Amino acid sequence: MKIGIMGGTFDPIHIGHLLLGEFAYEDFGLDEIWFMPNGNPPHKDTTVHKDKADDEKALRQRVEMVRRAICGVPHFKLCLHEASAVKHSYTYQTMRELNIEYPEDSFYFILGADSLFAIEQWRYFKEIFPTCTILAAMRDDKDVKDMEQQIAYLSEKYGARIELLRAPLLEISSTTIRERAAKNLSIHYMVPDPVVEYIGQNQLYRE
């Protein structure tokens, strides 16, 4: 199978994540998109909590929001590979482990333009390239030349396999959603309805 990997904290998951996954699925003929919540990310903080129990509860909530967001989409799957990790989850480790566990499958790692330009700062980033094809999402049409130059540079220097992923530009972020939820403002249309309901029922992100 050809499997797309969408990693992130998903705090919360929003329609931008889902659209990116859907466009990758369609444009590259993928069989499945795996949404992989990160339980212990090394470079991005999740919502701050007081103790380990709170962190574990927050992780369960993030996982449940992903589960509800993708429910009913047969080619969207929830993958708990990183959520169950005790140590920091690094991309190179995750992709290496997936290749070992699923040797018959091909993996496509989906990331944004900012991550593509910053990838040389990632830990052991060169070890990512042999494990997958990278699908780099453009922010808008004006970025085409810069993206193509970065792709050519990484491909020539490191032998990376990178393709442009053209998806709609949506100025939606998990930070904005958390801020609006904290103020009891509407987050409809930013996240799927089941996630809106879950956030409301559990009073998530409230001040």
From TrEMBL:
Catalytic activity: nicotinate beta-D-ribonucleotide + ATP + H(+) = deamido-NAD(+) + diphosphate
Entry keyword ATP-binding: yes
Residue ranges of domain Cytidyltransferase-like in the record: 5-180
Alphabetized InterPro entries for the sequence: Cyt_trans-like, NadD/NMNAT, Rossmann-like_a/b/a_fold
Keyword Nucleotidyltransferase: yes
Family matches, as CDD domains: NMNAT (cd02165)
Keywords annotated in UniProt: ATP-binding, NAD, Nucleotide-binding, Nucleotidyltransferase, Pyridine nucleotide biosynthesis, Transferase
Documented EC number(s): 2.7.7.18
Gene3D superfamilies: HUPs (3.40.50.620)
Pathway connected to this protein: Cofactor biosynthesis; NAD(+) biosynthesis; deamido-NAD(+) from nicotinate D-ribonucleotide: step 1/1
GO molecular function terms listed in the Swiss-Prot or TrEMBL record: nicotinate-nucleotide adenylyltransferase activity
PANTHER family for the chain: NICOTINATE-NUCLEOTIDE ADENYLYLTRANSFERASE-RELATED, PHOSPHOPANTETHEINE ADENYLYLTRANSFERASE
Family: Belongs to the NadD family.
Function, as annotated: Catalyzes the reversible adenylation of nicotinate mononucleotide (NaMN) to nicotinic acid adenine dinucleotide (NaAD).
Protein name (database record): Probable nicotinate-nucleotide adenylyltransferase
Organism listed in the record: Faecalicatena acetigenes
Lineage summary: Bacteria, Bacillati, Bacillota, Clostridia, Lachnospirales
Primary gene name: nadD
